[in-house]
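Ops channel
N.P.: pipeline sanity check, posting one input/output pair.
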């Protein structure tokens, strides 16, 4: 039995889908108000709870062999990105769980002090590594599904909003590939107690993304490119009456201001260990938007 946290999220949902396609038993940790009907329909066990509540975590981890932690933080990085994962690791040890897969983030080890999510994820990584559990830590770059709403808007009006430097590079990963990798990690000797950066097969500048959309939808891109200092201005203004939101925007700023890509060697390593060919962004968008 797998336990998937963040099962209604973009990655978690794909993990549950793939597990159920293989008819593997899975328990989806979901909140009552979330849309979990698809997961239930596919035959996942549904555990309703809140990752902020220790009792829910204790119950959800009973009778589980593998944990895949994919949840995000919403508005509370300390409680969710950090504490819920520490608690899950402790419970995994108590319950003799066979393997723990943790979704971290590319660049987590670069010491970005203004990015609470990165800091929390790095601390969780360290805790997991020294826990004595079998683990795999995946450090993905940006997920391809994040671009689907932008691609849909582009399809309608050709407009692409690009905040910050168009020359910044990234290697967007197919969220479906990442789900496959997360699941396979629990059974692969080469993935045991390893940390892997995970990206797509190409290093793309951010400016190349609207070009890809242009090719897919056969439209000349209209790029709106506000500089990053606009976000800084908004952030400072918000900080006057919402310091929590100001801190959260630090993670977004870090993502927009820096480069997140995998080297060709890192990509070859992932493809060799997991025996798959990583999907390009162009293929992912075309596949989802039916072109
Ligand atoms: N998206 C990216 O580009 C990217 C890149 C690198 C790493 N990552 C990491 O990859 C992981 C998955 O990202 P994602 O984009 O798939 O996340 P997502 O779509 O934002 O989903 C977050 C999930 O966490 C759940 N959640 C939040 N608070 C909860 C709570 N208190 N109790 C129970 N569940 C709660 C949400 O449930 P509800 O449906 O109830 O809100 C949702 O299922 C995250 O750890 C993220 O930091 C993401």
């Amino acid at each position: 039995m797998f336990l998937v946290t963040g099962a209604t999220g973009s990655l978690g949902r794909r993990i549950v889908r793939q597990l159920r396609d293989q008819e593997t038993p899975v328990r989806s940790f979901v909140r009552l108000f979330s849309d979990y009907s698809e997961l239930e329909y596919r035959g996942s066990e549904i555990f309703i709870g809140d990752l902020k509540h220790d009792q829910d975590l204790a119950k959800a981890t009973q009778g589980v062999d593998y944990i895949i932690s994919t949840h995000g933080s919403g508005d509370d990085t300390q409680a969710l990105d950090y504490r819920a994962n520490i608690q899950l690791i402790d419970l995994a040890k108590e319950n003799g769980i066979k393997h723990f897969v943790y979704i971290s983030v590319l660049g987590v080890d670069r010491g970005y002090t203004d990015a609470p999510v990165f800091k929390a994820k790095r601390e969780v990584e360290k805790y997991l590594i020294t826990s004595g559990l079998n683990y795999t830590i995946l450090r993905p770059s940006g997920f391809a599904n994040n671009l689907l709403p932008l691609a849909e808007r582009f399809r309608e009006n050709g407009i692409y909003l690009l905040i910050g430097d168009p020359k910044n590079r990234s290697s967007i990963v197919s969220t479906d590939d990442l789900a496959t990798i997360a699941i396979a990690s629990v059974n692969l000797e080469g993935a045991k107690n390893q940390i892997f950066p995970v990206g797509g097969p190409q290093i793309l500048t951010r400016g190349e993304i609207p070009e890809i959309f242009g090719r897919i939808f056969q439209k000349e891109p209209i790029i709106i490119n506000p500089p990053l200092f606009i976000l800084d201005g908004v952030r400072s203004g918000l900080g006057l009456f919402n310091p929590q939101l100001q801190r959260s925007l630090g993670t977004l700023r870090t993502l927009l201001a820096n480069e997140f890509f995998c080297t060709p060697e890192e990509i070859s390593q992932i493809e060799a260990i997991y025996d798959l060919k990583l999907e390009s962004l162009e293929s992912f968008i075309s596949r989802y938007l039916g072109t």
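N.P.: looks fine end to end. Residues 6-12, 31, 34, 50-52, 70-72, 74, 80, 103, 105, 117, 140, 142-143, 146 surround NAP (CB under 6 Å).
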